[in-house]
Structures
1.
Amino acid sequence: MTAPAVADTNWLEPPELYLALSEECKIDRPIYQGDVFQDVTLPKLPKRSLTEPDDHLQTVQQSVMVVPHPCQCYYGDKLRPFLTVAPVKLVESYENFGDDRAGAKDKFALPDLPVQQVDGSWVEQSCVADFGRLISVPSNWLKPPKRVCCLTHRGLGLLAKRVLGFQLRDRTTTLYSAMAYVQAEWNESFLMQAWVRKYESLRGFTQWLRSPQLIKAIDAERAVVPADYRDGALDALLEAITGEAVD
Amino acid sequence: MSGMLALASEWRGESFPTIASETSTAPRESILNSATAGSGTTSKTWRRSAVTIVVELPKSDAPEIPLRKLLEIVKSALKISDRTADISSLNVENARITRDSKGHLRIELVWPQPESASDPDHVSLELRISTARSSAKKARSGTHSRLARELRALTGLPASALAMAFGVTREQYQRWVSGRPISDVRHGQLIYAHTIAAEVARKLGSDQAPVWWRTQLSSGETPEQLLRRRNLALVYESVVSLPDPRPVVDDVELGLRPRDDGWSEEPPEGIEAQDDWSPYRPHRDDEE
């Protein structure tokens, strides 16, 4: 049997896991599954329930990772009002992930994640996103300039594996099948970014994506629906948006 | 920049110049050997996936570090780079590890205080592990050639047909086969197409798979035609619908999964108050 294009794994080192880190994160890249944002206000929930009228929740500024599938992050051209996030925390090691790295199912490893210090410098530290503390926050609390990492396609596939492990105890999904499953959404993120770069907002993107367009690089004579070609013709769709040929 | 583990020395606040390093690839054992050899000019590189570690031993005028201790440190540092050890501790007597403001790991050794000195003598060993983000590109240079070559074998399709699937010329496709560079966009497309083609071959066998690519589907088109038209979503759909003789092997579900793009749902609560997403303007709530 032919070896898969992408070997199945439960672990990715930073170069394969991160598309961009800290200042490399482009501000116009859409807020997407797996993005980590710092300085997000989260409630600090006490163990005892709050019953008195004067009881107030304390808050804490923390890094969080966006968890929902990309289609659950957006509704048309709008970011959904609330997004579910997993708090990100430092860990001393990843020993509890086990030898096969399939353990600690309630965590997603973020090795060498840059953490900004008080003096503004960045320090790479071992972190995890904690699925055991999921919470939904207003999406406008996730500020693009505060984004510290975006995942690669492989990273997105690994996140899908981990989420399935957390929710279903699923160990059967392979990295390559998870990646193929989200191929269209992965490519769409670049189309969204190109659109925002050109028009400064997502306004009109969904309409363009779902309506027949004449895209010569795909079909010189007949209009095609761009959404149908997200899987296999990213270059042609990018060219249709930007007017510039893609290598 | 490739990541590195540098062992440089400091003595009573004075920095000794770091030994010029020669970067070379060596197996894991070499780094340990270099540490035990203790030569002032030894420098080796250890490559493990993305992490490159360079050991630069102190110059001869630096305080002598017991070789056993150095070996322990290197072993512990390797364990840290494997991410199986606590980053705050080396578990080596008289040694501790910290991070500096640039994120570099810093190993500090404390020697017994000499009678004449007011401060304990320190030997600081600087350890830098930063990941080489460019290494993913380097690593794939070997894989895209394999993928392009295997895609031809798996489908039995000519290079001209496959080139159309990627929106490139036949010559460009052949250059990929021979290992010439490929862009990020095309590499992603190649991985996807290979994944689909491998799935067809797994389900039908390597003899029948090329036949399938040329056989009409219920839509009237062949998979090859869909590929040439760059509609890989329909190819994916067709492949997923093929019967699977061995869906699960060793508890791993081998097959690609059917997708459902036809979801419809009620608008989420509060969506009407949201602006179209833009990173350039503050949200309404921020302005209030």
2.
Amino acid sequence: MDILASLAMGFSSALTPINLMYGFIGCLLGTAIGVLPGIGPALTVALLLPITAKVDPTGALIMFAGIYYGAQFGGSTTSILLNTPGESSSMVTALEGNLMARNGRAGPALATAAIGSFVAGTIATIMLTLFAPLVAKLALKFGPAEYFAILVLSFTTVSAVLGASMLRGFASLGIGLTVGLIGLDSTSGIARYTLGVPELVDGIEVVLVAVGLFAVGEALYSLLYQKEEATGRHRLTSLWMTRSDWKRSVPAWLRGTLIGFPFGSIPAGGAEIPTFLSYSTERKLSKYPKEFAASKGEGAIEGVAGPEAANNASATGSLVPLLTLGIPTSATAAILLAAFQNYNLQPGPMLFETSGDLVWTLVASLYIGNVILLVLNLPLVGLWVKLLQIPRPYLNAGILVFASIGVYGMRHSSFDLLLMLAIGWGGVLMRRFDFPVAPVIVGMLLGPMAEKQLRNALSISEGDWTVFLTQPISAAFLALTLLVLLVPHLLHARGIKLHEDD
Amino acid sequence: MTQPRGIVPTQLAIGLGVIAISAVLAFGAYRFPPEMGFVILGAHVYPFAVAAFLGAVGLLLSYQAITGGFRELADHTDGTAGVVPDGKAGAAWVTAGLLGVALLINFIGFVLAAALLFACSARGFGSRRPVRDLAIGMALTLPIYWLFNAGLGVSLPPLVNAWI
């Protein structure tokens, strides 16, 4: 009952015209960048972080959440019509959905993706509503040792599970941790690794790194290595799903949600695993295995419905560790964390106590956002497709201009712009040799947190390192970390490969 | 996927680069000024750990590079194997545009510098109409300038520098 009362309060605040407007803008922007190739939710939220100086936290966070959500919705449109996944987590949709589109069934594919996203998003938000307060209550008992163990677990999962090679994931993480070291040490006050450059004393902003890697790096990489493909766009067809489409989609949506939410809510890094898992589940369970891409079929609707639902559910699920523990499990979540920190809000168990109204308004806005997105995406899908007509030069030039504004606007420093360019070239190198990018962002953000918790834990234990193993919760997290290191080997052995979610 | 045997120089360079970063971290941590008072865990311990971690990763990367190359390199064998014909020129244009905006923004102001960046990037991505691109760039950046200054309170350098 307590939860219901809080949620009702959240709704009354989320439904005020101003917050509705922020939610709507967020959903609109999110869908647009989801549709557009080359720009993702992490980059967009990073570029919009300056508004935290002006807009009140509730409005800004509602908008950012809308962008995060909307990008998942919009990404499926591009995948189905163009076979170029707008977001990498919609790769499966690109596979199966594009096949359907090629066979004249673009409409039902788009419909099942959008309605599935709505169903999954709503169910996942209900689960978030129920579980987040419980997790927060549990997390209140965590001390520094437990936090340190959770952070180690998050590091490991984000870098080990993503990408083809665990070693390269760890290399990215190491680089991220290194970047996180730069600047004033909060405990001792020593300036570390500033190389005498005054601009580095404050540390390097996460926005700067994100924009360098995602905007500049991506633009340069696509220029250097990506052939312009003459991918024919598929025509839209009627969105109506037949009775059999519905019958095949509904169970796939539900299964996708059940797979997606837990994977999103554990620090397992992004929406890749659940989408692939859901896809292979649907393939096994389907009564029409011949229609799947692997059997050179015409595209099976379950193969779109399940993964799209899983994708959305895991995006919602990833808000659980973010809100209750302050731990981001994807690059976008990491930037959202930075947004909270701009308001001097530290996500974590205390957030539910100290800023309860904000949290519940945010949760309520997720329910509303799902409805907005369904309306925005289904009837208006033709409008979004028009966005794809923006010529490639202008689209990319526009992204770069916005990137520069975002970075320069932070503290009016030309040095930051040069650093952004350098990081961009570093990003090209990383992309070229298949180093995942998300661990860099997560590492630079969580590294300083981990160091602080480590020091606190050791202060409490008076320098006794065994504290991490003797405290049951912390020991359990470390054991889980070991498990995470082993699981990818097992997955690889079974021929499952995972890719990065940006 | 077949792995070519032998040493892959570019990848070895990356491995060695990671080792170099680790060495810099360790050396830097060694030279931190001494801390005052009772310290449980000094400012240098965690950086040392990161350095050790990076060093190990760098060694393994280098090992892979001299024994046939990084493992499980995804899909660079197909369409993205080499630099596309106009790729280098395009990347050079974009780099020049970004360098330009970094060096010029404090002198010619935000609107002009960003419009220049827009034109350079568009050129890099294959547009061949510099004047039109500049105009579009201005049409894009002027409203942004106004929006940021008036709406968000993020002040960007003015159209032309104040003293001109």
